[in-house]
Structure formats: C-alpha cells, structure tokens
Design brief:
This protein is of the alpha/beta class. The chain is built from 16 helices and 31 strands.
Length: about 700
C-alpha cells in the first residue's frame, strides 16, 4: 500500500497514544531508536488495511501526527522502521504490525502464526535472520477511544461513593472474573465470564454475605494465550502474560471496545462497600525471550522497553517468562505510571497487587528498596494513596525480598502461609514462626514506620492448592496441564488426612473440614490483612491441581450448583469469624504488639500462655515438639480475648488465665465443632478447659 503524508498534520508529542479531541485524532508513539513510523488504519472489522500514513514529526524521541476527521472506533496499528541488529539489541521489522502500548481498547484476538516472529523460523542462526511476512492479519487491532467523554457507565459515576476502607479493616477476596461467574446459575449466560457477570447482584450478594471488604482480581489487562497452550487446546486462564497495560482483556467484555462494563462493575462493587484491587503484571510482557514474537514493544524499541543481557542479543530475565521490563528507562517508567493512574482515575480502582514485584525494584539487576519505580509510586499524589501490594519475589538472584519493600507498601507474606500450614498439620519446631505471623510478622515489617497491615496474610492463593485440596492431597496432580506433572511446586506443606483425593470415609471427610475451619480461624485471628481465595469458603476443589494456570474449565471455575449443606455450614462459620474480626478491634491492631502493659487494665497487649496457664518462657519457645499455645490480647477499655490453638492429634487440658478484669470466659468461636458463640456455659478464671485436637477456640473475657 502506498504511503501518504498529505492528510497528516504535525500534531503533538503528547499525550502518548491515540487521543480524540472531538475533531480528529492525535497519534504519539515513543521510540528512541526507530527511523520512521507508519500508522496503519483498518476497516470496521479490523481485517483490511485501508490507509497508511507516515507520522510526520519526531519530537523528544516521540513520533507524532494528527488526522482530522478521524473518529472513535477506528482500528489502527503501527509499523516501525529501524535497524534490525539483534546483536546490538535492535529488532525493528516493518513487516510486523504492532500494538500501540497506550491503546485503550483492542479488537480481535491474537491468531498465532509464524508471521509474528521477526526472524525466519528454521534458519540456522535463527534470531539473526529477517522475516518479511506480514503479521497484520493475525494480530488484534488497536481502537481509538473517546477520551473526551471518558467511559460511559450504566450507573451515575459522579455520584459514586468509594468505600475507602482503612488498611486495618480490610479483608481481601482473591477472585477470577470468569472463574467466579462461568457457572453461576443466576448470571445470564451471555454475561458469564465477563465484568458484567461479576457485577451481577447475586455475585455481589455472596461477597457481602461473606463480609469481605475488597476483591483482588487476577489480571484483567489484555493478555495473550501462549502458543504452546493453544496448540494443546489449553489457555492462559490466569492472565499473567500481558499484551497491553491499558486495554481490558477482550474475553471479559461482551462487545469489542466496550469498556464501560468494567466501570459499571467497579461502581456496583463500591455501592456494596467493596473495594477493587487489580493484580497487575508490569514485570514482563507476552513477547517472551529473544526468540519470542514481535507484537508490540519488541518492534517499537526493544533496547528501550526491555532489560537486555550483557550480550544485547538476549533478554535479561528475572521473571521466568523470557523478559524483564526496563522500568529504569524514563519513558517505560512513564508508561507504567500512566497505566496505573489510568486505572485509578478512569477505572476508579482502589489499589494494585504487583506480580513479581522484586523485578520492579531492581536497579542494575539487584533489588534496591528505593528503586526508581518504587520511589516513583511513593511520591505520586494519586497512586501513593491507594492500596499497594507487592508479591515480594521473582526468579532472579536474591529474588526473595519479603519485608524489604519501602513504606506505603504491603506484601504477600509467604512465610505466614508456610508457617501456618506447617504448624497446623503438626510439624515440629513451628510454634515460634506461627506466633510471629499471628502478630503481623514484626520481625519482617516493623521498620520505617510500617504497620501490621504491611503483612497480607493468606493460607491459599490462586497459585497452589485450594483450601479443600490442601487437606485432601499430599501430592500435586497436574497431569491435565500436559507437562508430565513437572510443573507446580512439589512441596505444598499439605496433608491428605489419610487418603489421597476423594474418599467415602466419613471420618476423613470430617477431619478435612475440621482442618479447613481451623486454618481459616487462625487466619482471621491474625494481625495484618487476611486474604481469602475464591471458593475456599464453599470447599472449591481443583482435584489436586496446584498450578491450574491453563485450566479455563470446570477445574478452576466455582461450581455454584454443587454447594452442599456441609459447604453452607462452613460458609456460615467463616462469615461468623469475619463478623468477629470486624467487631473486636484487638484483632486488627494499628500497631505491632510486643507484650507491653495496657494502662489501667492489669493486662499486656499480648500474652503467650502455656497449657498450665503460665506465660511462655524461652525454654518453652525452644521446645521443638510443642504444638499448642494460648494468646491473650488486651486493649484499653476493651474486653480481653483469649485464643487457644492445638495442632496435636490428641486433646490437651488448658488452664484458663485469671486476669483481675475477667470474671468469666465466654466462648466466641470453636473450630472443632464449627460453632460461632456456642450455647455453652461461661467458664471461670483458672478453670480447666479440654481443648480438642486440631482445634482453635476463641474466648471473650467478661468483666461482669
């Protein structure tokens, strides 16, 4: 197609992306090393290229041009010219149609084809060869969005009330847009698996009944199904393979480019008092390593967008996904910050969970707590006020950086998960670790003014066993992933309670439910921020698959119609625990507890107790076989709380403490029986209590 310049005006180098001003569209694309950029326009179906223009101006490393008369809904893409010198880190190839990094919506899906690769597959020195096939027929097209009108939600956006839940009051529910809705009988069939389905009243009612204050959604930014998955009839269900950081994933919206459904979902969740946190992937992209496809960033400016190895032909990779985004480059950092602000200001989200966040904190390839990106977020007047959660690890050298993120950040506390799992299944030597986790892991987070909510506590998450599987399987069963069961972590700190997988043994089933109740009760009684995994409240199983990233099917979806009476009872027990957590401030302290005296109460803010009622001593903590513990919390003007934990396989006699302010101890929750405020007689101070095996019991100390 012939290039045409005469219809294109110079335009402006800002804002980046395609911007409609009511009259025409300004296009602006950053590339420090390109020689020329062509803008390609496509028909309404996004199939046929109808015009091609050279962007006429280049200002401050930004190519730009303005097309008067162009309207929202126009499909487009870029072809970028420059040197093809892989050995120098440059991989320009104008035969590859490229997605605008700032595109706000995409039309169509990626159709895998050899034309996506910048080199000739099969050549002897593969990535140094040059492929001239046109990739345009096989790649999604960018859509011009009306940025003057913003998104048009069904609900009046200007009257929306954001919950603004305090960190210490937050309870997170990690969920998947499709997994939550694909099998819900009350969600209309055409809305299942979409933002519209997630905002259905029946789904929101479930979350409200449960009592969570925030949903943390697995990635919703546009992502790609890996080629090897498609070839094996699998998909990238989780979505950790980002193609674009602004556009919502097309499978979650019902019409191409109709992004209003996301905003409507947020509005309805906010109306119900529930915040929205997005799981975001700014550490790598879907373009993979140096042998990956050329879809966007690689063809626009590989040497700027990606961290390159000492030999620039290769990518520097700390993510395990083939590449690491070069967030130290000012324009790449700007793109990430613009994307985050876009989802906050236009999407009204309340926070972010950053996948493999250690990679975002690397400077000169080593993690630094005050790295460029982390500092940029801390000083940003919009983002610094939002909930920021780091997954504090990656696969690079010294990748595990838990506790080292700066003020303003919370972190997924994997140590809490591992210590609690080990303790609860009866491993010796675990008492000190679980006790630290119950108080918010001060040894990790109490620095630089950080608070207990720096610790995001969880027993299960999307990556690993569900709670039901944690106590039904000793080993992972990932054969359906077609990787010879080699994928997924081999050490899950799980216990099948006596049988691998489903069983007809009623005693084993009862023990499994008992283990699940105790684990979640320990989670809900811990300082910090508890996080629940979708479906754990009703016994969702993945049949032992601990890496269901590619299972977009019944394996991963929440089966609403298979919920039994036993599941309902479990759900009710968990709801009761959440009500208790929200009612008693001692369970969500805004400061770390260290056994300091509470004024005028004759109590400490926390006391650790042995079974004989005495306070724990150094030798008791060093007793590697101890699996029972008492924890008493005191606070000014509040009734003390007493928690008793027994991970032994036998019951234990526990003497209740006798502080001066307590006349009786009233039971609030009992995980052994699955009861909230059971109708049992109060016990007096110094009374002997038979603490059942594998049980957690919570008491309230009454003054009268």
């Amino acid at each position: 197609m012939a290039r045409r310049k005469h219809n294109v005006e110079p335009g402006l180098p800002y804002p980046l992306g395609a911007s409609f001003d009511g009259v025409g569209v300004n296009f602006a694309l950053f590339s420090a090393n390109a020689k020329l950029v062509e803008l390609c326009l496509f028909d309404d179906a996004g199939k046929r290229e109808v015009a091609r223009f050279v962007l006429p101006e280049y200002t401050d490393e930004i190519f730009h041009g303005y097309l008067p008369g162009l309207r929202p809904g126009q499909s487009y893409g870029y072809r970028v010219h420059g040197l093809y010198e892989p050995e120098a880190g440059h991989r320009f190839n104008p035969h590859k149609l490229l997605i605008d990094p700032y595109a706000k919506a995409l039309r169509g899906r990626l159709d895998w084809n050899d034309a996506h690769y910048g080199y000739v597959i099969g050549d002897e020195d593969v990535d140094l060869s040059f492929d001239r096939r046109d990739s345009a027929p096989f790649i999604p097209k960018c859509l011009v969005v009306d940025t003057t009108a913003r998104w048009r939600p069904t609900l009046p956006w200007r009257r929306e009330n954001r919950p603004r839940t305090l960190w210490q009051d937050t309870i997170i529910y990690e969920a998947h847009v499709k997994g939550m809705t694909a099998r819900h009988p009350l969600v209309p069939e055409n809305a299942r698996g979409t933002f519209a389905g997630f905002s259905h009243p029946a789904v929101i009612e479930h979350l409200v009944r449960l009592g969570v204050t925030a949903v943390e959604l697995l990635p919703v930014q546009a992502f790609v199904d890996d080629r090897h998955l498609i070839e094996n009839d699998l998909t990238n269900y989780w979505g950790y393979n980002t193609l674009n950081f602004f556009a919502p994933h097309e499978r979650y919206i019902r019409r191409d480019g109709d992004i209003s459904e996301f905003r409507t979902m947020v509005s309805r969740l906010h109306e119900a008092g529930i915040e929205v946190i997005l799981d975001v992937v700014y550490n790598h992209t879907a373009e993979g390593n140096h042998l990956g496809p050329t879809l966007s960033f690689r063809g626009i400016d590989n040497a700027s967008y990606y961290m390159l190895a000492d030999e620039p032909r290769y990518n520097f990779d700390t993510t395990g996904c083939g590449n690491t985004i070069n967030q130290r480059h000012p324009r790449v950092l700007q793109m990430i910050m613009d994307s985050l602000r876009y989802w906050v200001e236009d999407g009204h989200v309340d926070g972010f969970r950053f996948d493999l966040a250690t990679s975002l904190g690397r400077e000169h390839k080593a993690f630094v707590p005050d790295a460029t990106f982390l500092d940029a977020v801390r000083q940003d007047p919009v983002l610094s006020r939002k909930k920021l959660i780091a997954e504090p690890w990656d696969v690079g050298e010294d990748g595990y950086q838990i506790g080292r993120f700066p003020p303003g950040w919370s972190e997924w506390n994997g140590r809490f998960r591992d210590d609690l799992r080990s303790f609860w299944k009866g491993d010796h030597g675990t008492l000190p670790g679980v006790a630290s986790g119950l108080l918010g892991s001060a040894d990790l987070f109490e620095k630089r003014g950080r608070r207990p909510w720096s610790s995001i506590n969880f027993v299960t998450a999307h990556d690993g066993f569900t709670l039901a599987d944690l106590y039904a399987y000793n080993d992972k069963h990932n054969a359906a992933n077609l990787e010879d069961n080699a994928d997924g972590h081999p050490d899950n700190l799980s216990w099948n309670c006596g049988a691998e997988g489903p069983t007809d043994n009623a005693e084993i089933d009862a023990l499994r439910i008992r283990m699940r109740r105790g684990a979640l009760m320990l989670l809900m009684l811990s300082q910090g921020v508890p996080m629940l995994l979708m479906g754990d409240e009703v016994g969702r199983t993945q049949q032992g698959n601990n890496n269901a990233y590619c299972q977009d099917n019944e394996t991963s979806w929440l089966d609403w119609q298979s919920i039994t009476e036993s599941d309902e009872a479990f759900f009710s027990f968990l709801c009761g625990l959440i009500r208790i957590r929200r009612r008693w401030p001692q369970l969500r302290s805004s400061r770390f507890l260290h056994g300091q005296r509470v004024p005028r109460e004759g109590l400490k803010d926390v006391s650790w107790l042995r079974a004989d009622g005495g306070e724990m001593r150094k030798a008791d903590w060093e007793n590697g076989t101890a699996l029972s513990l008492g924890m008493m919390l005191g606070a000014p003007g509040l009734e003390p709380l007493l928690m008793l934990f027994n991970a032994n396989h036998e019951p234990i006699d526990f003497r209740l403490p006798a502080p001066q302010v307590v006349r009786t101890w009233r039971c609030l929750a009992d995980s052994a029986e699955g009861e909230i405020e059971p109708r049992t007689a109060p016990l007096g101070p110094s009374a002997d209590f038979r603490l059942p095996q594998r049980a957690v019991v919570l008491f309230e100390g009454r003054r009268e």
